[in-house]
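User: Batch of two.

Assistant: Item 1 of 2:
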Amino acid sequence: MASPRPVPFQPVPPPPVLPLGARLRSPAGLGLAAAILLGLVLAADLFACFADQMEAEVAHDLLGGVDAELSRRANRADGLYGTAGIMQGVTMVATVVVYLCWLWRARLNAEVFEPYGHRMKRGWAIGSWFVPIGNLWLPRRVVLDVWTASVPPGARVRNTPVNAWWTLWIISLLAGRAAAQQYDAADTAAEVGDAARLMLFSDALDAVAAILAIVVVVHLTRMQRRRLLVPPGAAPAFG
């Protein structure tokens, strides 16, 4: 009878070394704050859509001549248009600060879930948003990597919410810049109306993008909380 063939030695690979400073922490609080502020961005966008529509209507009416009533409407429309811009700026700045704090925490968690699943270093989670031209696609790459790393094991990765949010937001951003330049260069009521309608398109897209951004924040936060609360194997150590 032949003796059993020896099994070749197969060394057990060491556990992956986590990146320095990476530890599991719940993103729920920051996620809730980011979602609320994105809701304020949505409200500001809807108000801006109303102001854009009024500006476009007044510009159209000015083509037939100016009277006292129309002059008052024009002043009111200009005031609402300017107020909408201020509201959008304030809500955007506040949202960016909280959103980046949330994304940083989500990125740290994602490094624990999947240490080798990120195409960019940790600092790019924030720095990518401030790179000229590059900020049109680099932040999406960061968010996609965090999203993929946070999907529960065995679940199907669906990137549609991230891609839809990013696509609409970039189109809105580019259209808004074009509308602002067109508005500043406008010399006639017709040109003002064209700029206002383009801005209406931009603000409407931004409103939809804000809704999708809320979906991304809420869903990504839930995925990470699920992995924090019910992890495979040993329970995680919260920091």
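Item 2 of 2:
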Amino acid sequence: MQIIGADAVAEALAWPALIDGIETLFREGCEAPPRHHHAIPRPGGEATMLLMPAWEHDGYIGVKMAHVFPQNAERGLPAISGVYFLCSGETGQPLACIEGSELTRRRTAAASALAARYLARPDAGRLVVAGTGALAPMLVEAHATVRPIRSVGIWGRNPEKAQAVAADCRERGIDCEAVTDLEAAVGEADIVSCATLSTEPLVRGGWLRPGTHVDLVGAFRADMRESDDEAVRRASVFVDTEAGARGEAGDLRQAAEAGAFDYDTGIQADLAALARGTHPGRRDDAEITLFKSVGASLEDLAAAITVWRAAGEPA
């Protein structure tokens, strides 16, 4: 069994290949049972363990074990860590143990970019990111792969962290600045991407101008949310998977509880429907679209297969 570290994962998961790989697996389909979600009490606050299995119909088998420790921000550590185990679909033998944090961040950003490929306006040039974690610059790069992003604003509760992320993006050749007025930034954005662990709305529906695409990837539990009820009510809602959205998407569940959203009629399509062409995605330039992602084990499997093949191993 090979051990594949974070640097090798980053090198293998170039954005175009990763986005296309996730799109292909959504189009072709695989078995992806609901993830196991376990709360772990800790002195510094509750942590979460996630177990996410998936397997191709005639191919690889894999499972990710991930931990979410929100309190790690106080220690200068990433909130999310984990490992991915990829196995042969023919024999079940382990093939690789892959560093999971880099894989998770990159597949998350790639799934958002895949959604934006169908849901953001083709001329979307202004991106605003709410969040200052390790995922933030990846969301910038991934969105810039599928849309002509010309300028980026970074917002965070800690302005110094926002300035640091903006500086990092500038070093990558991206026109990026920290912003302090989130309402004003959202009002000028073509794409708004949120990657936080917030339990209170950050993006208000009244701030959204026609044609905006809202990308919500951070809140992954029913008690978390990054948008208010009005944002969900005004938007055409799309999800990574319907099962995940019904079970864990706090933005949608809380809006549904308030009567601003109905799961049965409100979800326009998932990524599989978009990838297969059974839903066209954005309908016109004035439509407000919202993509809610809680993470799917299919995305992890697609990323792990991409890493494995990049390592020169047989398909």
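The chain has two domains: 2-104+298-310, 117-295.
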